[in-house]
Every structure is written in C-alpha cells, then in structure tokens.
C-alpha cells in the first residue's frame, strides 16, 4: 500500500509513512474507537468538491510531515484496510533510522486522478536535485480517511536521459488520444536547442490554454511601456464568463490590478479574468502576439510560417459557439476568416449559452477549427518569450503570474518553476518553465487531443508525471 524504497534522502524514511508514528492501541481501549486501529466509522455522504478539498488538505498534511513536523501525526487518520497492511514496528524503526531535519519539499505539479485520488510531484528544498512522486487516495465518504499513500523517490539523473525519453515515447503507443511534445533548452544568446520532441510542430486544439497568448500580449504591452502590472482595471459585469469563479461573482466597478487579473487567469483558470484582459487589450493585439510566436516557432523549426490569421476568441465567444442555444459552430467553422470576424461582431455576441448543454459538454467540438490551437513548439516559444520579457525591469510578473503565490521568485533569483495547464473536452495542454540555479533554462510543452470523447485524464496524467520526472532532471 505504501511504496518502500531505501535512498539516502529523507524520502526513504517516509515511504512507509504516516501510520507508522501512530501509537499502538492499548490492550483495553477506553473512550471512542480510534479510526486508525481498524474500527469502523459510519460513512457520511459528501460531494465531489468536498472530496477534492479534503484531498488537498491531506496532501498539505503529508508535505508538512515530510518537512519533519511529526507532531502533526495526531491529525492523520487511516482506513482499516490501510492499517491492516502497514507493518507498524518496521515502519517506526525505519523512520527513526532515516529521518533527518530537512526543509521538506516544494510541490511542482499536482493532478486529480478522480475525486478521491490526487497525485503530486515535488522537489527537495535542501539540495534541489532530489524528487518524489506522491499518490494519495481517501475513502469516498466522510471522514475521508487516507486509504492509500504511495511516495516514491525519483532516481537521480545520470549523464544522459535519452533512455528515459525513449521509455516515455514507448508509453505513448496504443493510447486512445494523440500526444505532441516538445522540450527545449534556451541558450544564453536566446537560441533554442531541442532536447526531445514528439510531433513538435503539429498544431492541435489547446482549449483555454489559449489564454496564455492573452497573458503574453499583456506582458508585451507592459514591456513597451504601454501599461504597468499594478494598473487598476474595473470589473465589467458584461464580461463575466464561465464557469463560476471568485472573480465572476465580484460586483461591477470593483477594481483589480492587471497582475491580479493575469495571475487568476493563469493559475486559477479564471475565464472572467481572461476575458477582461481580452477586452482591455483588444483582439488585434493578442493576435499579433500569437502570430509572432507562430512565426518564431516556424523559423526555429525551419518550416514555412503559417499564412492567414484566424480570429482569436474570448472564452465567452468559445462557449457561445460551442454551447449556444442558437447553433453557430458549423457556420463559423466553415466560414473564411473575414466571415468569422463578421459573425463575431454581429451574431455571436447575441447568442445565449445553454447552461444545460454546457454542463453536459463532454464530446470534443471542432478542436482544430473553432477555439485555440498551437503546436508544442509554439507553446515553448511563448514560454521562452515570457521568460525573456521577465528579465526586463518591472516586468517580472510575465513569469510570476504563471506560479501560485507560494512559488514566486526566491531571493537572489534562485531556480523556479512556472506552469500553465488548461483545456476543454477533447483537448488538454500544459507548459512548464524551469530556470535552474546554474542559469540554464528549460521549457516543456505537451498537448493531448482526442476525437469523439474526452482525453482520458488518468492516462494523460500518468504521461505528464513521467515527462516531468525526466524534464526536471535534464543533465
């Protein structure tokens, strides 16, 4: 139930983990039964949101204990099945032998496999070269005790990780979706070296990952001196998008800074924020930023640059086209770009979103002709441009907006990781940027597309986890 691997790191001490420190049951228990001792608890129903919130809390607790906060062990509860398979005495001895003071780990990536299982990938804060993967499951009913906990150290990188990339490529075979991947290193002179790729120039649907180009256009404008990250922008109720978010519930006239809009759009997937930035910048400026990236990626790949420029959509325009009461998607998809722009000015703004249809939206819809598209190389190019812009005084937020608050720049410009993941039914995309302490910078982009049904999240998440393991250990 808990993966046990002996390594030289603190991780090894915790691979048999938390149940080990719970005190053994007394011979004659007094008071209410301890759920860690195999006693049953009457289940209480809960919804998916509650389960995911609990998963995050359980993961936070595990990370605290990995940091050495063993006094929090009394907060941990396990199911009877978990306890029955955990050799307590061996675990305690192992922990005492291996546990050492540590700064713990920083979580670089998390993924919900379902409503009761979360995965995480984390890096040691002590040496910044040790990594672990975590998979944590809870029982589906309250009190949501931990039912599974696997913590595995990632092997240290060798002089070459070609075989690791080859193994990843082999894992893509037979999957019921298309996968495209690009991993690049940015040289000091700004040029790129491709480390690994799978169909890097294939343009696929990326869903709301397309809002990355909105953020890029804003960063470009600020670099030109046309705005500042602390500039206030008022909430416009007509620009509320879907789904509900903390910004969509704000009253009209409330002010947020451009940095707040951008960070919420990038790290929280807040489409209302993305559409406020869309309206503030204008469609033309965002298309310019996107098309500039496309041209740079084509030059890097030594292929012909794309011709023509399809309209860049706001998130609400995408919902009106794909989930509208009045069907417009086929007309829009079949139309030339000039006619598409006319529809966006005349008919699309009047279209109402069918909320029932939106709730039931599972099948991919015109991924390549309606919405946002990009190749992995283009996403990497966008990340490289953001990294370059972040080095300009006052424009650090170009990258900082792609990280939650706890992962902002460390003092002295230490290594950091920024990321953005998003999609829609049938499309998932991710971008990861890693600036290492030695000054080397690496970027990885992955895009999944599926025809006829959603991308299977468990399989795509497994691929992302494997890719991140190799990516973050690039020699």
> Overall pLDDT, averaged?
82
Low-confidence runs of at least 5 consecutive residues: 1-41, 91-101, 407-415
Order of neighbouring strands in the sheet with most strands = 6-5-13-12-11
Percent of residues in β-strands: 15-25%
Distance between the termini: 32 Å
Summing up helix and strand content along with how strands pair, one would put the structural category as alpha+beta
- In N-to-C order, the SSE pattern is HHHEEEEHEEEHEEHHHHHHHEHHEEEH
Report the sheet with the most strands, covering strand number, pairing sense and barrel closure: 5 strands, antiparallel
**How many strands in all?**
13
Shape: globular
Describe the structure.
The protein has 475 residues and is α+β, with helices and mostly antiparallel strands. It is 34% helix and 19% strand. The chain is built from 15 helices and 13 strands. The protein has helices at 48-66, 80-84, 88-98, 162-172, 211-223, 258-267, 271-281, 283-301, 315-322, 329-334, 337-346, 355-360, 376-390, 397-400, 457-471; strands at residues 105-114, 117-124, 131-138, 146-154, 178-186, 192-198, 204-205, 232-234, 255-257, 373-374, 416-424, 427-435, 441-449. A 5-stranded antiparallel sheet has the order 6-5-13-12-11, sandwiched between helices. Helix 4 packs antiparallel against helix 15, helix 5 packs across helix 7 and helix 6 crosses helix 7 (271-281). It is globular, with a radius of gyration of 24 Å. Mean pLDDT is 82; it is low at 1-41, 91-101 and 407-415.
